[in-house]
User: What shape does this take?
Amino acid sequence: MLDKLKGLDKGQYSIFLILAVVILIASFLSENFMSPNNITNILRQVAVITILAYGAMTLIISGMIDLSAGSVMAFAGVVSVIVYKDTESMLWAILAGIVIGVICNLVNALLVATFRTPAFIVTLGMMMMARGAVLEITQGQNVLQLGDFVKLGQGSVGWMPLPTLFLIIITVVIWYLMSQTRYGRGLYAVGGNEEAARAAGIPVTRVKYQAFIVNGVLVGIAGVIFMARVNAGLPNAGVGYELQAITAPIIGGTSFSGGVGTTAGTLAGALIVGVLGNIMNLTGVGSYIQQIVMGLIIAVAVTYDVWSKRGKRKTVILKSTDDGPHGGTTRSPDGDTGAPPGNQLSQATTPR
Amino acid sequence: MKLFNRKIATVSIAAAAALSMVACSSSGGDAEGDDGYRVAYIARAQVDSFAAWLANEIKAEAENYPDITVEVFDGQADDEIENTMIENAIANNFDAIIIQANNGEAQRPYIEQSVAAGIVTITTNPRVEGIEGASSVDASPFDQGAVVAQYALDQVPEDAKVVVLNGPGGNFHSTERRKAWQEEFFDKRPDVEIVAEDIANWNKDEALRLMEDWVLAHPEIDAIISMNDNMAAGALEAVKNKPNFDGILAYGVDGTPEATLLIEKGLMTASTLQNAEELAELNLKTVHDLLTGVEDEVHVDIGNPLITSENVEEYLELYKSAGLID
Assistant: This one.
């Protein structure tokens, strides 16, 4: 047991420690903070961003990025609303949102994985195309009178808001995918070292397609929940959400260089952002100061990521005589080794 | 060399495709405008629902002027893009340019260039003040705020606790509307306490999140005072089905389709209409008068009608006929 604990990366639990400290401080700052209503509030508020963050996490772990998430979310959400208004079917509406998310991400995948165009550029283009598409179909006007569609964002099961329930289900699915399946192992391997992954027989192109498809499903669901929550199809929704979605995994320990990250860390990162926003609103901190605080957190998280990786690289080099020539493995801190069975891939020692 | 050739070929194909699209989109305008006036309408941002509505109304109203062809450009809420579009319109010898500034001061030098080039220049929604030779068509944001603030004077209960939602920092319409609320309401009602005030950037979702937190920190809130309807609607979503907030007063500005629906249901109290249809009519009339020499310079405002439960039907009809609500 002790050996197991020793083997844990500091980053795997420090994020939860930070979350606990933030919650503790927040509970002293406002008597309302720990009230059941507020806890429900936070869980409802973080749902959309956390779902987007899981998508961002899968892409960042596999060495890619999605700058189109906010625009595609708006596109998917508005189409979902329109389909609901036409069919009055929740199922068709949700499917429509997911289909739009997946189609946009398949285009991203085609250009990134098949044509090897940088994800940054491709998704920047998709950001504009998706926003243009949603503006074109709505002519810039909000879609109103949503009827029962709002239940998807405002309804609840018992005390639990539906967005929170969706978030819990999605968290479990993503955790399973990332830590218990070949899909997850492929993502870590490709993000850790693409060339090594290819040499090890991992279908890199397929893995990238899979990452974008999962992202598309998540972005589509986020769009549906978002529009239901605000009770309107807003074509201008989600501006800047792609960056907020990237923030949560980065704070939660996902490395911008790829190959490292956890579902639990992303959830914790999203909760830290959500709790901080909530406590600042409860205590009347203005939006300008809130932006400074959030910016500072991102800068510190990324700096910590770079700094800790530099430390690791030194450590791994020293350990290389014990661990073989590669000196270490790509690690999924959810408990699994990132490399596929039988293929222990180097991450930390390989310059990228 | 092979790679270089391939790159050249790729760029050429992309450029040819882009040019053919531009040619297709502009050819219609040229055909119609051969004997008429070419007007560039530079919109603030198509993602802004009011700006989009105004752009649509401008296009529709232009149909009533056979001697005018309007081409609409999207400033994408970006000063740099908007300024570039003004420069392009000057370079392309448009007869008139109507500019919906993203940030009046940032666009000022470019608007001045347009005037200096002898082009009929109009600033609209908002007006950019003090440019000699330029005309303007606007709705006064101060008056819009003042109309609804005066209406609230008698409605907001004594010692009421209110929350205030503002637009983006430094935005002319937001600051003028807030100034009107200060002068016409808060200065006259010192008993009213602002328990929370923040920026929600005109956005419904940001206002919703703020209000969700505020209702926990301040269990007694009597009124929502918002600088636009979108934020008021977002705040109202947060108190929906919360018995403690039944009958909460909510004031906005813009008279959006959503606001009129909320007023009809008794959920929102009042708004001031910023009528894009009227703005468009006035803009086209002004530009036509200026181009045909009927006027040399025009500065005109549309009205600021108050929308309440008593007259909301009239505005619902307006939006139904425009196809914006069912």
About this structure: Residues 1-8, 314-352 of chain A have pLDDT under 50 and may be disordered.
